[in-house]
Amino acid sequence: MKIAKDEIKHIATLAKLEIPEENLEKFSQEFDSILGYFDELNSLAPRPILSIQAKKQPLRQDDTNLPNHFEKTEAIIQGFPEKQDRFAKVPTAIKDHKDQN
Predict the structure, then answer these.
(1) Number of folded domains in the chain?
(2) Which of 52, 74, 92, 96 is 20 to 30 A away from residue 40, measured at CA?
(3) 1 with 36: CB under 8 angstroms?
(4) Does any domain span residue 85?
């Protein structure tokens, strides 16, 4: 599929490119090569895609004999500078757009 120089100029205008007159033939050949690849892709017969279904994975039994990594929870909570119940209070990281006046 040969692309005319006028079409190359039009594409360059749409892309806001300046292509010198002496390069139009080169660009025409390059576009022709690129479109050839698309023609080649279009000629390929699509293969059916196998259906991928999520199969139910077996769940493991919960292990209640795991070590407690949070043995010092109360000491950590007592160390919070500010707290509410058992939660640390921290400064707001994301402000509501109404507050940005």
Answers:
(1) 1
(2) 52
(3) yes
(4) no
